[in-house]
Fold each of these.
Amino acid sequence: MLGSVLLCCVPRPGWADNLICDRLIDDFSMDAPGHWPAGWRERDGASPDDAMRHSRYVVEQAAGFKALRATFGDKSVTIGRSVSNWDLQRYPVLQWRWQAVQLPKGGDETRGSHNDTAASVYVFWKAAWPFRVQSLKFTWSTTRPVGTHADRGMGHYHVRVMESGRANLGQWRTVRADVLAEATLRFGKDLQVPYGIAVLTDGDDTESPSEALYAEFRLCRRAPD
């Protein structure tokens, strides 16, 4: 059951109707609880053991499914995985589930000195690390309202706030992002195939705790008429 579904980003009449989310990226079902998720790697190529010294990413058993728990330590750590042959024309929507557990104090994606977020999901186009060239970042913000857009990295890195504040803290939420529409708006029509997805839970700029859970990443297509 999806429950409530958050929709983003650029309205196209009827785009969210009759979506079929039948391409699984990862639901962590094959991972053992207490371990780093298979197929994911740290942005700078560090080993899982090195990454876990700074920010903990570990699979755990949730209520009837497995999830990835991210807990900020003392350094911002982004982890990602590739997505093979992602045809945006056929699969324009990315769906995932997340739960913010603890929001970084004063986190604000539009201010460099407070640029922390409890939960964030990236789509990135660069076929190498880091993720910062042509990437979209969808966040659960501490302070910025839903729908906020921030242009970062000289136009190569864009942020969109999907959820904000404490109202749904500790609750599982399902998100659908129209990646094709958002990417076309931000980067133009001459898009390459996305390389993959990434997640980040951080609190280094505000020097505050930050924690979230992520689950079941899927690609969605429109049902046949």
Note: The mean pLDDT is 87.
Amino acid sequence: MKKKITAPKVYSMKNKEKITMITSYDCPTTKIVESAGVDIILVGDSVGMVMLGYPTTLEVTVDDIVHHAKAVSRCSEYALKVGDMPFMSYQASVEEAVKNAGRIIQQGGMDAVKLEGGENHIDKVKAIINAGIPVMGHVGLTPQSVNLFGGFKIQGKTVESAKQILKDAKLLDETGVFALVLEGIPEELAKIITESVSCPTIGIGAGRYCDGQVLVFHDMLSIPEPCYFKFVKQFENAGEIMRKGVENYVKAVKEHKFPEQNNVTHLSDEILQALKNRGELRCI
């Protein structure tokens, strides 16, 4: 029987085995990615843009994360399940951070939480860990700071920015995060960080030298259409397959070709005759 993946297990994978992480927000997707052997399932605040139609992740609430996390946790047996802490769920105070992290674990059924930011949120990370909740860090391009960055832009391209991201990574590592997401930074900086911290790094748009990789499920499978971010590779065009299937369905119904004979259920002649005799099926 396959063993459940835990936060300590992920931590121990550094320099031994590449780590795979992928997003999921519902039960069917969870079953697919887990059966494919993914190590970590992330119920990301990307749910806002991917599933809920929001323009950014900033509109996502703790209730949104908990709702989708419940669906994922019901259908996952082996992968480590990580729930994102959305915008303003931890920024205001340590108390709010611990409370909301607890909700994601207790109500959402997650195994750990992920939160964005470095030096400015070390006190929250420490408090959440002290409450017995494993934390995954996230530095570099942090989408919840999109307004501060002036858009979704690569970070760490100046000396000052690179130094701060490296400092943030080291502080989070020292605080006790079990893994660290590096998003939207130059490959060379990601390599330096990976070699400088004891916890594994998981990259998204951070190059080849991280200890693992994460992608959004819908991006990597072109659902509903291809994603053109440079860091995304389309591994299959599932969106086109799904669209073709729906087109075939619409065409079959319009042309009276669905349902077919083998798609319907019939009454026995005996029951049909009995109903006719009782006058209950005069239309037949």
Note: The first strand starts at residue 19 and ends at 23.
